[in-house]
Design goal:
With 373 residues, this protein is an alpha+beta fold. The chain is built from 11 helices and 15 strands.
Length: 373
């Protein structure tokens, strides 16, 4: 553990805290099996150094002096006797060791934790317009709810007895063998799901499960600005908890349909707008449609080129849960007429000639006119 021979109990606790955090699987970057072995080693050291008798034997005889203090001659998790120190050392962080040590709190808290209902997920699709404006939707969620016949006990008439598997403790010990010896953990009893109670006679309506399947109808509100991947949490709308434990939550994942008339990147929108050659050449004031159904004015400067893009600040998508909007990017497309009158053709040819354009095809309309005369 890296402490001196004269280390005080507080110094030993401090060293254990540091090393245990270091080798915790959610923190360490090492191989899980290597981290498991190192965590076991520091726990063995703490078991020895935190016990005055074992520490004295270790100081006198080394490992040989303490091996006899362990059940099988070697340290296993069954030999760890300082579970109560875990919360003293780690506080709330100590709960992460529950899976290893079988929990550091009361059996009732472990039961409650083990019986929490599972979270559920549902996917919902909305249009881009609905994402812009926000929308309310009613969704149907198939889920389990407490059986009304037995009040969720699973027992006929609601009468229960001690679980025959765990003798009413709500717990079961699981022994796993690994290359590092035996690994023992305490888990909720599977038969009673950690409650310590079992049906005296199973309820016929729910087959002793204490719950039956129903369809819940829930209204959700999607705020303006939602995007694909937006996640909404509906607390308590997930699977029912067992024996009074809290229900799980429902997570609704939003998917926004693509709209061929619009492009989107986060809170910014993209729109192609057609204007005439004259508007592009001379400049003009145009009305650009917005996704919300309105229009916004935009100045097109003289000499605007095809595919030139203009930015309209604050005319894009609402920013979800924020008082603001993204921008609207307008890309100019030239609208080329497919049918021209004789006068329009004359004017275009005249324009081309004044512009110095010698293209032969521009002379065809003029020849055609002379023939007709």
């Amino acid at each position: 553990m890296g402490v001196t021979k004269t280390a005080t109990p507080d110094e030993i606790k401090k060293a254990y805290r540091k090393l245990a955090r270091q080798y915790h699987p959610d923190v360490t970057q090492e191989d899980p099996k290597v981290a498991e072995e190192k965590f076991k080693e520091v726990s063995e050291a703490y078991e020895v150094l935190a016990d005055e008798k074992k520490r004295q034997l270790y100081d006198q005889y080394g490992h040989a002096g303490v091996d006899s203090q362990f059940q099988n001659g070697n340290f296993t998790w069954n030999d760890f006797s300082h579970y109560g120190d875990i919360r003293d050392i780690f506080g709330d962080f100590g709960s992460i060791f529950d899976a290893i040590f079988g929990g550091g709190g009361s059996s009732s808290s472990r039961r409650q934790q083990s019986q929490a209902g599972r979270d559920m997920r549902m996917d919902i699709e909305i249009s881009l317009e609905e994402a812009y404006s926000g929308v309310k939707r009613k969704i149907s969620v198939p889920k389990f709810e407490a059986c009304t016949s037995c009040n969720g006990t699973g027992s006929k008439g609601g009468k229960q007895v001690n679980c025959p598997d765990c003798k009413g403790t709500g717990q079961a010990r699981v022994v796993q063998n690994s290359g590092f010896g035996q690994f023992v953990s305490v888990v909720p009893c599977r038969k009673c799901r950690g409650t310590g109670r079992a049906p005296g006679s199973e309820c016929e309506d729910c087959d002793g499960n204490g719950r039956t399947q129903h369809t819940a109808h829930i209204e959700i509100e999607i705020a303006p600005g939602a995007d694909t991947g937006t996640r909404l949490r509906v607390p308590g709308a997930g699977e029912m908890g067992h024996s009074g434990a809290r229900n799980g939550d429902l997570y609704v994942i939003v998917h926004v349909r693509e709209d061929p008339a619009w492009g989107r990147n986060g809170a910014d929108l993209y729109k192609d707008v057609e204007i005439s050659f004259a508007e592009a050449a001379l400049g003009s004031e145009i009305e650009v449609p917005t996704l919300g159904g309105g229009k916004v004015s935009m100045s097109v400067p003289a000499g605007t080129q095809p595919d030139q893009t203009f930015r309209l600040r604050g005319s894009g998508m609402p920013i979800m849960n924020y008082n603001g909007k993204g921008d609207l990017y307008v890309r100019i497309k030239l609208k080329v007429p497919q049918r021209l009158s004789a006068e329009q053709k004359d004017l275009l040819v005249k324009f081309a000639e004044l512009d110095g354009d010698k293209s032969q095809f521009l002379k065809f309309p003029k020849k055609d006119r002379k023939r007709k005369r």
